[in-house]
Amino acid sequence: MPRQAAPLPAPPPERGEMAEVVEADAEAEDQEERWARLLPELLSDVVRRVEASGCERWPARKDVVSCACVCRRWREAAVAVVRPPAESGKITFPSSLKQPGPRELPMQCFIKRNKKNSTFLLYLGFTNSPMDKGKFLMAARRFRRGPHTEYIISLDAEDLSQGSNAYMGKLRSDFWGTNFKIYDSKPPYDGAKASSSRSSRRFGSRRISPQVSAGNYEVGQVSYKYNLLKSRGPRRMYCSLECPSAQETWENSLKTKFRRPIGPTTLRNKAPRWHEHLQCWCLNFHGRVTVASVKNFQLVASADPSDPAGTVDEETVLLQFGKVDDDMFTMDYRQPLSAFQAFAISLSSFGTKLACE
Question: Which residues form a coiled coil (predicted)?
Fold first, then answer.
């Protein structure tokens, strides 16, 4: 067969074309400098007006994010104006997903499960309607790793791998499916050591903090205790978590500074009561859960035996998760939990638990 001639290289741009390219680049840089040269007071006022102009909910809230994407100075102004979820009750930036939720009213979310591809999508709920489309927050996919099961958590529903720029962390189970470890891609505090050699990777542009090395840092554990009553009794859950401090400033949360370790937060499932008339175990989910399931749970703070004053509030539900349809679940969380931690704990309820069923 005759050989095909190699394609000729494209001719270099003419002098005039090169000049146009240089001029276009210079014009773009000049335009960016023009935005950045706004007076700090004027810049803050612009962002404050955008924040107050009906941007309470998504998709209108994307205007605030657009302001933060103009340049570094606009980002700093947006950070100074927009308050964290603990204060505002709003999720704005990706970093909000790893910040504590509000204290008074829970952040209402829901999870959609796809059994065909073993994926779970987390959405911020706008209404209590089952037809609510919500705002997409995170996604997870279940993988089998030998005797273990892993749930990879990502900002991108189409790219669910540890090598992704959108990788946020993972949940890993033991063989029995009763003990789980939660790993964060971001160090929880200064000096934290990664438990994976992947720490040499760098966050991409969509990372929570682009300057921080990406690894797997253990930030929590979830365990399900053996159920002596078999299928008649509810599961018993215990969680130990490194929760972000509510006092940590919003500015530091978006930079490379991290808090000191403050000790783990311990949670346990709220004990249900036996309903004689219905002949089943019951919990009050205040209308947020409509289908009976062994997966349903409510977590409260666990009392500290070393605290004789009993300052821990054991009645306030910090995380509740429950079924509303075949593949639809609600997830409501509040301080000190973040959306990422609440999602990871909720994922642990899926799958077979050999010692609990």
Answer: none
Beta-carbon neighbour count of residue 114 at 10 Å?
13
Token readout for 314 is: 């054991």
For the record, the structure tokens of 323 come out as: 């079924």
Task: Select the more confidently predicted residue: 260 or 150.
Answer: 150
DSSP conformation letters of 26-72: HHHHHHHHHHHTS-HHHHHHHHHHHHHSS-SSTTTTHHHHHHHTS-H
Q: Which residue has the tokens 């050999």?
A: 354
Determine the Cα–Cα distance for residues 244 and 208; give it in Å rounded to an integer. Answer: 14
Q: What is the DSSP letter of 100?
A: B
The model's pTM is 0.81
Range from 71-80, 85-94, 201-210, 253-262 carrying the lowest mean pLDDT: 201-210
List, as own/partner pairs, every contact residues 49-54 make where C-beta atoms lie below 8 angstroms and the sequence separation is at least 24, other chains included: 51/81, 51/82
User: For residue 354, what is the DSSP state?
Assistant: T
Give the separation between CA 170 and CA 187, rounded to whole angstroms: 14
Q: In angstroms, rounded to a whole number, what is the distance separating the alpha carbons of residues 210 and 256?
A: 9
AA letter at 324: V
Do residues 354 and 178 touch, judged by C-beta distance below 8 A? yes
pLDDT digits (tens, 9 = 90+) for 338-351: 999 999 999 999 97
CB 152 within 8 A of CB 141: yes
Q: Is the Cβ–Cβ distance between 60 and 50 less than 8 Å? A: no
Q: What is the DSSP letter of 291?
A: B
- Whether 97 contacts 339, CB under 8 Å: yes
pLDDT digits (tens, 9 = 90+) for 105-149: 999 999 999 999 999 999 999 877 766 788 999 999 999 888 889
In degrees and rounded to multiples of 5, residue 311 shows phi and psi of: -80, -10
Task: Return the structure tokens found at 208.
Answer: 């929570």
Contact 261, 218 (CB under 8 A): no
Helix (H, G, I), strand (E, B) or coil at 239: strand
Q: How far apart are the first and last CA of the chain?
A: 67
